[in-house]
Amino acid sequence: MNEPRATLKTHRQVFRGRIFAVDSDRVLLPNGHEATLDIVRHPGSVVLLPMPDPSHLILVKQYRYAIDRWIWELAAGSLEEGEAPEAAAVRECEEEIGLVASRADEIGTFYPTPGYCDEKMIFYRLTQLAQPAPGAAAAQKDPDEDLRVHTFTVEEVRSLIRDGTIVDAKTIVGLMLIGA
Fold it and tell me: Which of 25, 64, 142, 155 is deepest in the core (most CB within 10 A)?
């Protein structure tokens, strides 16, 4: 069954940044009312679940300015224009974790804030992890990244969620997707 959708009346981009844009759209909603909605437009991202083996998971600790604290989380990155999500997951694994994944399996998708943002997060379990080949060009971290990488048992990650150490929604969703 096709459910009714909104009809765009007017569109105005109010901000364009390095990672996302913000649009202000006037729409006719399915209920017949008109509204102006501000939407964050994001190219989409990949979320990494690097698993050296079925009982271990690699997380990164990084400073998040928006909440002014260091947090443990799953590594993730935005899709580059025209980039396939699986290729982005493998690229981000090498950039952020320092390991090359020979296998990347899509395990789910998630819209973290659909009330005002169209970002689609695609989760990948990355396995068959290895050091980059000797002499291979090193993957470059983004300039704003300062990452600490650590391997945890899945049970340790569960415990960090329960005690409030892990506060990142994508990490909690990722753990759920691997059945942990």
Answer: 25
